[in-house]
Design goal:
This is Alcohol dehydrogenase. Its main location: membrane. One of its GO terms (molecular function) is heme binding. By secondary structure, this protein is mainly alpha-helical. Helices cover 41% and strands 5% of the residues. 42% of the residues are buried.
Amino acid sequence: MKKAALLAGVVAAALVSASGFASDLFDRINAGRYKAVLADCAACHTKPGGQPFAGGAPLDTPFGKLIPSNITPDRETGIGNWSYADFRGALKEGVGKGGKRLYPAMPYPAYSAMTEADIADLWAYFQKIEPVSNRVVSNQLPFPFSIRTVMIGWNLLNFSPSEFKPDPAKSAEWNRGAYLVNGPAHCGTCHTPKSLLGADKTDQFLRAGNLQSWVAPDITNDAHKGIGGWAAEDIVAYLKTGANRFDIASGPMSEVVANSTQYWTDADLTAVATYLKDIKGAGTAPPRPLDAGDPLMLAGKAIFVDRCSACHVSSGEGAPFLFPKLAKAPVVNGDDPTSLIRVVLEGSQAGTTKARPTTPAMPSFAWNLGDAEVASVLSYVRNSWGNAAPAVTPAQVKDMRTKLAR
């Protein structure tokens, strides 16, 4: 801790050095603005319709509810009375002002990989944004999780802070992508499965995670469950515009694209694509699909032809950049059908970007499809056109319908 405090003091001193003060500070603020976009700080710390970074909408975790804090420089309700060391400690070590332990819903396990320079840039930027008075009670967890000192034990078991170290055997582009995915962009926070304690299962890196009743799909190079069929250009297009020839961003990912990745430089998007294409998947053989003559498949096909084929077409190919392709799609072939069930029941509206300001929508079918019908049509989709995945059960649909009703 003494070494970290000393380092924080050195960096802070560099920010206010007499030599080139004005230009250096401007450059840091401008760089920090971009780093905040890379880290998608607004996604959590700005609630819909709220003031930028003044506190976000509640996050439902398996342990209870957390509300992202006010990170504007307001002295009473934000971080205006924090020091640089406090700020750095929060991002790099999960410990804020006064030794306050943070919960990993604020993804400090990923942010700890960020460079000292990037942290300093972020600090410079957040010192200059508009302060907003908005008191947020972040910790709304039930006992005993509400006691922040429990995080000492969690960190001992699950967290080893370390700054990203480039792999000399890889290209500069690959290393940049690895830094972004593992550090500021914190992709694994959603796309990596979690243990019972809420920690990343590092041996299943980027192989799909379930958070807030959405599945962040497998984004490894796995040919069946992941994005092995996507070229690097497809990944760039998806992150830049929210759509590619295979899929359209929806749910929380549409917010990531709208708030963050559409504003990344092309070089950074390409770097991420280069890195992701090098991440191996589980490599397990796909399951055997249900037989086309199975009663569940026959029932599901009839519903699909009647309700779904107009947009997704009878072959499941959809329409590029307009209606998602269902054939050989990662989210369709994944083990967990949560997102598929949710979209059928709730409907979906794709997020807008500068490149694609007009987006398609899918209506809700909760009102005219029962649990068994939703289960059968999704089982059909998950076992047709080269897809192979476990059948969906009526009980799974009923569970999601209950959650959405709440």
